[in-house]
Batch of 2 targets.
Target 1
Amino acid sequence: MSEEHFESFSRLQDQINVAKFYTLLEGAMLGITAEFDFKKGTEELRKIVHKRYMEMSMMLVKS
């Protein structure tokens, strides 16, 4: 690696302060907004949230 590339690499490496690894639970939460159609109203949202809550509960029981 050239000196210039190494210096650039080192500067970038110093800026890394967090790594985020998403879990299945977070995926289920994010899925609520992906699945919900805002035009259809609150009843659909209640059904989706309930479905995702049940999925998340089952994930936690299995872990």
Note: Residues 3-62 form one domain.
Target 2
Amino acid sequence: MPLTGSDCLGYPWRVTGVETVRGVDGSVERSVHQLGRGRDAVRFRLVDDTGAVAV
């Protein structure tokens, strides 16, 4: 996996950000925004005595 360096066949990912706004009265408001998301996978070949198949 690109983010952790661990081997895997597929993975989803999501990036979020937090925005903090301070009002003139001293109030604090936070909001969470999704900045991106996706998923990825790698092809691999499964082989046994009967043959092989790309997955």
Note: The mean pLDDT is 86.
